[in-house]
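All the exercises in this workshop are built on plain-text protein records. A learned vocabulary of local backbone shapes supplies the integers on the structure line. Once this layout is familiar, the rest of the handout is easier to follow. An example says more than a description, so a record of this kind follows:
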Amino acid sequence: MGLKLRKIVIIGAGHVGTMCGLSLMYRGEVDELVYIDIDREKAYSQALDLDDAVSLLPHQITVRTGDYGDAEDADVIVMAAGVSRLPGQTRLDMLDDSIRIMKEVASHMQGLHIPGILISISNPADIVADYLRKQLDLPKNRCFSTGTSLDSCRLRRILSQKMHLDRSSIQAFVMGEHGDSQMIPFSAVHISGKPLLQWMKDDPVRYGKLDLVQIEKETANAGHEVIEGKGSTEFGIGIALSEIVRSIFHDSKKVLPVSPLLEGEYGQYGIHAGVPCIIGKDGIEQVIEISLTDKEKEKFENSCGVIREYISHIS
């Protein structure tokens, strides 16, 4: 019996899809990388450009273009198709264009046997993941979006800068929509095991003046800031995606904030929303329910309400 090679199909060869592939290659988390895009010439050129990089990487990788049939033996499928977010647009403003594209993609995938795990990056992330899971009839553990994983990276960066502490010492998640209604459960933020709120209380001179409302605003606005400056986000989401894939391939059981289908967790039913989850070889193995204050519960419910409202608009 031959060695099982790790095959990843990325649908969408734009900025995000290409950077996801490059991150996976650099981190040694893929053996066969296949690109699918409606613009076949672009997909071919992106794959060829990535393939040139293999010559200087420490491991052999096959990078090529393919078709939707490649999904039938892929370990992971990354949905990165979509239109770029324009300056001033929210992710929800992209809904109509995104669903139009997803309908086209789903028409090619319906009827295929898809044993792998589908991770969606396309915005609006929570709503697209919900749509794809329903259209492709995939189990909830094997179809989810990157959710608030990138937002959580941004939160740790902002906290690190304001507190002058190494971000690897900070444990913090953003929850809810990958969008403007997201929320931060500050009561669950810890630095090296000590609650953030306790740091603020114990050292009021250094940390007591942290403006949590402003931190929440800066975190939610971080994506807009990047879009305004360069037109797309790509590096952060590429690494976030590769970290999720790494936890799947290594069965790491790492807790990461992604957007799964909620069926009673946090009192929410029938929607995808960003929450911490255990990620392993079968995808989402468990949704982790952390304690929230009454105010945090209210903010999370509000964010889920935004997601639910937009799902109801899809025909």
In short: The first helix runs from residue 15 to 26. Residues 7-145 form a domain with the Rossmann fold fold (CATH 3.40.50.720). The CA atoms of residues 144 and 260 lie 5 Å apart. The first strand starts at residue 7 and ends at 11.
